[in-house]
Specification:
Layout (H helix, E strand, L loop, with lengths): L8 H19 L6 H11 L11 H13 L3 H26 L2 H13 L1 H6 L6 H19 L5 H15 L7 H13 L7 H23 L3 H9 L9 H15 L1 H12 L1 H5 L2 H21 L13 H14 L3 H19 L19 H11 L5 E4 L2 H10 L6 E2 L8 H5 L10 E5 L4 H8 L2 E9 L7 E8 L4
Length: 470
Amino acid sequence: MRPMPTPSPRQAALALVLIALLQSLYNTTLPLSGDEAYYWVWAKTLQAGYHDHPPGIAVLIAITTGLLGDGVFAVRLVAVACTAGAAWFIGAIAAEVYDRRTGMLALGLAVMLPAAAAGFTLATPDAPLLLFWAAGAYFARRAVAGDGLWRDFLLAGLAIGCGMASKYTAVLLPAAIAVFVLVRRRDLLASKRTWAAVLVAALAFAPVVWWNWRHGFESFAFQYRHGGGEATAIRWGSAADFIGGLGLLLSPVVFLLLCARVALWREWWRDDRRTFLMACFLLPAVFLLYKALFAKIQLNWGAPAIVTAVPLVADFIVARNLRRTAIAAAAVALLVSALIKWPLAFGLSGKLNPHNRLHGPETAAIAVEELRRPGDSIFADHLQRASLLRFYLSGHPRVAIPTESRFSEYSRWDSDLDFRTMHGLYLGEGDKLAELRQVFGSAVLVREVVAEREGFRTERYNLYRVGTGG
């Protein structure tokens, strides 16, 4: 069987740019999610940390929206740029460890996988995490399992530090690298280059530590609890869901190829470069699987482990010249990605539609805009609705949360407000009349907003006029 054709690096770069442009256009067809809007609000109030996450995503959104304005295109440009950059580093890792053909295949798989379908769209902390994880793995491999140049050590430290300033699960990458060094390269423990890389990573992450220190380490504590840090009861179903989720992120054929690659351990154990890649996949995957035994693990948490899994799969295909398998892997990956991007075209409606939560709040925002009067303040019952209202309303007005809700940055931002002296419109789910009258003294339901769209779950909101000043 003839070997697979190999595009040149220039052709691959042009193809990646084209994919990024098409993804950016596609992104403008979907409203922002509540989480994305919340991170956009963060970008308007930049600080060294937040209750939920480090500031990486907020900094990047502040850059893109500062250059291109406050639109869906600009917000999601962060996701497009980060995912495209991560894919390029994945291809570069495979090309250096194996050869150019393997690198091009790895790059192709990286942009076809279902993980990329979501990654190219959602501007969340996973976007910069994926980019900096891929960059960190690339430079760290060159540092500890390659030529070991000073430049590679320092750039690895910078990428790892920026990754940890994007999402705390980034700590699993340096943990995997440390395990590799202890097992295969203990000589590096005495190297100045190693400790210089650690120092650079620590400096990049230092502002986040400083913010946590000033706020009672609340962000660290929140993520520890969020990850099931205090759970003790084993949940086998949650572990099965995690394995199934990893299979979905990779697509079934690629997942099976990865399992085969892992099982043939003698092939990768005898080579430091290959062992490094496997360590950076296995340690995060095994750790998250362990956590999944005690708590529900979100599907996106396993995405960074895919970074070094893809080169391992690409090598498995190329070394055995599995051309038909490669075509099948690409076809299945593209099919699953298409299901994610265009669910209605495949009959995925109602609860099966992954875009369900994207539609509804925009309709509610239109209703708020229609009833809004000069001088009105805007209120909501949840951080996501509050953020979406601020994004979609003209002038991007400040939105507050006056009723009971989980702790968020809004809890801090609203702490100086005296709601008894304010008036305006309040958007929420369910009957809030009694609670609103306690907060504002006066409240009346002015409209029931029903957001209906064929193929999507119906969303219902109540819109109240609150306070007496209006």
